Amino acid sequence: MAPPVPVADAVGMDHMRWQCSRCAALSPVGELRYACTRCRWSGRLTLAIDYERVGAGRSPGEVLLTGEHSLWRYARLLPVAAGGGGARRVRSGYVAGWTPLHRADRLARRLGLGRLWIKDEAGNPSGALKDRASVLAVADALDRGRDVIATASSGNAGAALAGAAAAVGLRCVVFVPRGTPPAKLTQISRYGARVLVVDGDYDAAVRLSTAACRRWGWYCRNTAYNPCTAEGKKTVALEIVEQLGWSAPDAVVVPVGDGNILAGVHRGLCDARAMGWIDRMPRLIGVQAAAAAAVHRAWTEGAADAGPAPARTRAESINVGEPQDGFRALAAVRDTAGVMVAVEDEEIFAAIDWLAAESGVYAEPASAAGAAALPALVARGELGSTDRVVLLNTGSGLKTAPSAAGGGAIPVAADLRAVAAAVMAGGAGADGEADLDEPEPQW
Ligand SMILES: *Cc1c(COP(=O)(O)O)cnc(C)c1O
Ligand SMILES: [Zn+2]
């Protein structure tokens, strides 16, 4: 393990420390630490903030960089100084965060929810929530004078890192597992990163990338291992409560692989609560694929951490056998009186279609897992007609292969009769047979 590297630009950061999520040991933010040394690197580091010094009790407008329409809006709650050299280079060149919050009224009515919003992370530059973690990691790597940055990824983290690295000219190495969708491999390669397809699964890619970073001193962005990941991702929760007029929804539904997004969302809500910007915590609902359900299994067994479990879901972004942030994810669900649920792959792929058709949001499979859980959550009485629910759309459906070739697109000859026949036969609202002598589509 490389020795800690002091950061010249740690000035102004002395109101925060890293704190181990397991043993509570504190360490300075200015030292590069990936995990707790006392816990033999298994404890995850959480930012412990002296909220008084940041301005707890003051209005958000006095604390936030309100002119900043990116995650740097919340800079005073982040472990990387917004005015530092790294942040200055990445901040305007790769604008992540401040994504739209859509109100999904049609879907809320159909599902029987009071209100439903979709926080649409496809609006980030690489098309996924992972950009929030990657910009912080890139800024931190620049502040520490590193010129190579690396990560393990099932696709999205690598794309986000490669994109942010491209914007500032850092060299980037991405370790992906076998079976990563071609669209994601292409995206990462186009950003100019080295993409290494590891002969193994995501967990193998995590191990190999960590070893490579130690061996060659590369800055390591690995999810959860690098504490900037959860701290970057927490900004999605700060945005949600700000976009809801500084009010907490009743529940936030989050797809879970490593559990880092869930841990990050919890971090952001804890910050908002401690600052006095929301008066209660929403329930956090974590959703896993039943075919890769290590965190869900730990939840049902009452375990504190998620042990290894089989990982065979086709939702590759949550196909994790050894969750890197299981401990904090489980604590987040328990602390908020939330729940973990598991959904079948068939439910996930069906949800891609109904989510898109009833909300206008096209999700990738991992992201659709959250939506897939909603009908069962309502049926079980976990969510109901008075609840205000936020669903995270963690990644764009454009980045994954369609569930069926063409997704049901209909070839037509270039004439109106063919259009009329196709619209009626395609189930676009018409009933009965197309009248080929009358080429007006009957809606
Ligand atoms: C990474 C990812 C997830 C899961 O996040 P974890 O932190 O691994 O739990 C969910 N959806 C998408 C689209 C992702 O890229
Ligand atoms: Zn520790």
Describe the structure.
Belongs to the threonine synthase family. Residues 96-395 form the Tryptophan synthase beta chain-like PALP domain. The modification N6-(pyridoxal phosphate)lysine is found at residue 130. Keywords: Lyase, Pyridoxal phosphate. With 443 residues, the protein is an alpha/beta fold. It has one domain: Rossmann fold, CATH 3.40.50. It contains 16 helices and 13 strands. The strands form 3 sheets. It has a 6-stranded mixed β-sheet with strand order 4-5-13-10-11-12, with helices on both faces. It has a 4-stranded parallel β-sheet with strand order 8-7-6-9, sandwiched between helices. Strands 2-1-3 form a 3-stranded antiparallel β-sheet. Residues 1-11 and 427-434 have low confidence and may be disordered. Pyridoxal-5'-phosphate is lined by residues 128, 130, 156, 223, 255-262, 317-318, 364, 366-367, 394-395.
Strand and helix layout:
Blueprint: E1 16-20, E2 26-28, E3 45-49, H1 51-54, H2 60-63, H3 85-91, E4 101-103, H4 105-111, E5 115-120, H5 131-143, E6 148-152, H6 156-168, E7 171-177, H7 182-190, E8 194-198, H8 202-216, E9 219-220, H9 228-233, H10 235-243, E10 251-255, H11 260-274, E11 283-289, H12 294-301, H13 326-335, E12 339-343, H14 345-359, H15 365-379, E13 388-393, H16 416-425
Parallel strand pairs: 5-13, 6-7, 6-9, 7-8, 10-11, 10-13, 11-12
Antiparallel strand pairs: 1-2, 1-3, 4-5
The protein binds pyridoxal-5'-phosphate and zinc ion.
Bound molecules: pyridoxal-5'-phosphate, zinc ion
* Total DSSP E strands: 13
What is the annotated CATH architecture? 3-Layer(aba) Sandwich
Rg over CA atoms? 22 Å
User: Would you give the CATH topology?
Assistant: Rossmann fold
Largest sheet: 6 strands, mixed
Tell me the domain tally: 1
Strand content: 5-15%
Protein name: Threonine synthase
GO molecular function, one term: L-serine ammonia-lyase activity
Organism: Actinomadura luteofluorescens
Cofactor: pyridoxal 5'-phosphate
